[in-house]
Amino acid sequence: MTTLTHSIDAPDETRPFQAHGHLDVVTIDDFTLGRAVFEPGWKWSEDVRPIAGTDSCQTAHKGFCLSGHMTVRMDDGTELHMGPGDVVTIDPGHDAWVEGDEDCVFLDTGVAAYAKPA
């Protein structure tokens, strides 16, 4: 078995959001990891919907919140709140936004197609 490393601080790709943050992406073989930096004021429906071209986020996310706080509202109206140390899974069909005045930094394995033009 070969062990490979790649620093998230030197990403393969950086995908900017409309106005509030960016996504750094590293891919090793068939594994993709993203580090999203959602700045205060970030909201999926304003910062990513114009890129994705869908009414709500259609990406499944599995990840870990490093810092900051975010609220996720599913299309059915249910909400989840995440903060530092939370491990979350989020099904497709949601909006989300940063809570407070701190960047929400999130490591996410569901980013292969996230924030890429449709």
TrEMBL record:
Taxonomy of the source species: Bacteria, Bacillati, Actinomycetota, Actinomycetes, Propionibacteriales
InterPro entries, A to Z: Cupin_2 (IPR013096), RmlC-like_jellyroll (IPR014710), RmlC_Cupin_sf (IPR011051)
Domain Cupin type-2: 63-109
Protein's name according to its UniProt entry: Cupin domain-containing protein
Coiled coil: none
Domain of life: Bacteria
